[in-house]
Amino acid sequence: MSDVPDEPRLLDAGEAALVVEFGTTVDPAISDRVLALDDALGAAPLAGLLERVPTYRSLMLHYDPLVLDRETLVARVRSLAAGATARAATPTLWTLPCCYDAPHGEDIVQVAQRAGLSPDAVVSTHAGATYRVYMYGFAPGFAYLGGLADVLAVPRRQSPRPPHPRNAVMIGGGLAAVATVPMPTGWYVLGATPARLYAPERDPSFFVGAGDQIRFEPVDAATFDALTAREAAGEAVARRGEARR
Amino acid sequence: MSILAIEAAGPGVTLQDGGRHGYLRFGITAAGPMDPLMHASANRAAGNPLDATAIEVSTGGITVGAAGGPLGLALLAPGFRVALDGAALPEAVALTLEPGQILAVRAGDAGSWGYLAVSGRLDVAPVLGSNATHTRSALGGFDGRGLAAGDRLPVADGRAGDGAPHRLVVPWLARNARTIRVVPGPQDDYFAPDQIAAFLDGPWTVLPRGDRMACFLDGEPLKHARGHDIVSDGVAMGAIQVPGNGLPIVLMADRQSTGGYPKIATVIGPDIGRIAQLRGGTSLTFQKVTVAEAVAARRIERDAVREPVAREPVVRTDFASDFLLGLNLVGGVTDGAG
User: Fold this and answer.
1) Which among A68, A100, B162, B262 could disulfide-bond with A123, CB atoms 3.0 to 4.6 Å apart, if both were Cys?
2) In whole angstroms, what is the distance from residue A225 CA to residue A237 CA?
3) Euclidean distance between the first and final Cα of chain B, in Å?
4) What is the DSSP letter of B28?
5) Nearest to B307, CA basis, from B274, B328, B330, B338
6) What three-state secondary structure class fits B78?
7) How many angstroms separate the Cα of A56 from the Cα of each of A146, A160, A181, B26, B99?
8) How far is Cα B316 from Cα B296, in angstroms, rounded to an integer?
């Protein structure tokens, strides 16, 4: 555990955004502080506070400075941050089916070579871990996950590979991710989930929140296809449980 | 129902409203107009809500017609060339487009973005509460893409306007574009004081490869004091990140919600549109302001765009860049219209 300061740093990002910085590293204790403040601000709406964006180590607050002046926002943040040191609610544990087989696990052999493991060991290692959702970013519904086993901490590619498929399950640079919209990527594709973390026409469009946990449950290609069809018909194929702290 | 028919559209012409807000925490970019003040002003002139859906015209240009009935239009496209059935019009104009007529907007000597607002409501299905187009994720607007020849946009509650074209008088759009105001940070402590000074002084030259995501600058590279990789944090509109090569990148409407380079400063809201309008090759410098000064500038803009947009009859036929003629013309017109 690293040290987490009692008082966050407040950094202006122009006149309409404030960064509340709890640290500069990827660390569950820092993330807990970020998410606790996010929860506290969400529980007591403040007129003119437009969006809250949790990241690994900071909470970005986008605000309308003609409605909410900086001093009022800063005072609220300081008072809530002092009290909000732990999350109020127990995070949700999501079990996502994941097909590591062809054609989905496109980059497993490359990862196995770089990590010095067998392809089966790559799968069992990846599927054996519980991941924390630190943040979204990069693209719609792109969830950055911590908790990847050290043996799978291969660096990201020097140059991006062609766009990954929809709902790709990926690793790179010591982190794991679930992506949604196909994009060129420097990460390695280990598989795909039939669960759609992001579906703009669905209500809610997103169901996994920052701070939630994820496990991947291996399924074969035929099961993947069947689950994909059920998901497309409006059924949720991700299973929900209560996370262990 | 009347239809706005797209006869031709260059790359980068999209539908934009005030932006898709509320989903940044899930990685959804707000998008919205590159020049928010001009977008809002075009809507104001068209009698629409300030954040209504309008067409953002790139230097690729656009040609439109009306079908099913006449359409009232307001166009703000400083520096562009505008023609109705081949006859030149001012670059800030309100008109009624009759079926059979063709309005063409082409890139001129200056300006990167113009806004075409239809009096009424472009009846396009919103995605996540917005019609803003984010082409990188194929989200929103018209099928998640730029407009193209053959697209037909239904107009609900259309109003035809009042006949002959009128010049729009929008003095608040005569803006100083070469000095861009910034608030330092959030990672200005990744740079030594002499590098902050070098950043402010520039001069920087806008590179031509910019787009809705970012404005790339060229000049003397900046040096980082503490490396150029940070653990990702949030990215605000106008954030100026400095990657390893030391050349600043201003993140614009289609930016990603988070990023991993130090951000030396952030362009203030009122100057986002100014930098967006600069073409490749233009030089600029940055001016440091406080948050309070930035908020004051924002308030001036907000109040300006709430004023009615004055109109005057079009009498001239030579409209070479009214906006570039500067404040004198605009000031005189305002007096006459006031």
Assistant:
1) A100
2) 12
3) 36
4) -
5) B338
6) coil
7) 10, 23, 22, 14, 55
8) 37
Of A96, A90, A173, the residue nearest A138 (C-alpha):
A173
For A41-57, the pLDDT digits (tens) are 999 889 999 999 999 99
Burial class (CB in 10 A: 0-12, 13-18, 19+), B193: exposed
- Distance, CA of B35 to CA of B114 (rounded, Å): 8
Helix pair angle (A28-43, A70-83), 10° resolution: 120
Could you give the strand order of the β-sheet that contains A143-146, starting from the edge strand earlier in sequence? A188-192, A168-172, A175-178, A143-146, A131-136, A213-218, A92-98, A239-242
**Out of A60, A201, A206, closest to residue B234 by CB:** A60
The predicted pLDDT at position A171 comes to 97
Q: With an 8 Å Cβ cutoff, are A138 and B27 in contact?
A: yes
Q: What residues 18-77 of chain B have any CB closer than 8 A to a CB of chain A?
A: 21-29
Top residue of A9, A12, A134, A142 to mutate, by most chain B CBs within 10 Å, is A12
Mean pLDDT of B71-79: 97
pLDDT reported for residue A85: 77
Element housing A39 (H / E):
helix A28-43
- Mean pLDDT of chain A, nearest integer: 93
Place of tokens 């003119």: A48
Q: How far apart are CA A140 and CA A137, in angstroms?
A: 7
At residue A80, φ and ψ (nearest 5 deg) are -70, -35
DSSP string over A74-89: HHHHHHHHHH--S-SS
Residue labelled with tokens 């860049």: B321
Do residues A162 and A156 make contact, with C-beta atoms less than 8 angstroms apart?
A: no
What tokens appear for A227 in the block? Answer: 């689950």
The DSSP secondary structure of A110-170, one letter per residue, reads HHHHHHT--HHHHHHHHHT--EEEEEE-SSTT-EEEE---GGG-PPPPSSPBSPPPTTEEE
> Does B320 contact chain A (CB < 8 Å)?
no
Question: Cβ separation of A65 and B295 shorter than 8 Å?
Answer: yes
Query: Scanning the structure block, which residue is given the tokens 């009022």?
Result: A72
Q: The whole model's pTM is what?
A: 0.92
Per-residue pLDDT tens over the stretch B35-55:
999 999 999 999 999 999 999
Written as one letter, the residue type at A140 is P
- Chain A residues whose CB is inside 8 A of the B239 CB are 13-14
Contact B71, B158 (CB under 8 A): yes
Mean of pLDDT values over A73-102:
91
Report the residue count for chain B.
338
> What DSSP designation does B129 have?
T
Distance CA B218, CA B208 (A): 10
The pair of structure tokens assigned to A242 is 């209560």
Residues 6+ apart with CB under 8 A from B271: B180, B181, B182, B238, B297
The DSSP call for residue B130 is: B
Closest C-alpha among B98, B129, B135 to residue B4: B98
The ipTM is: 0.92
Distance CA B75, CA B62 (A): 12
Confidence grade of residue B331 (pLDDT, cut at 50, 70, 90) = very low
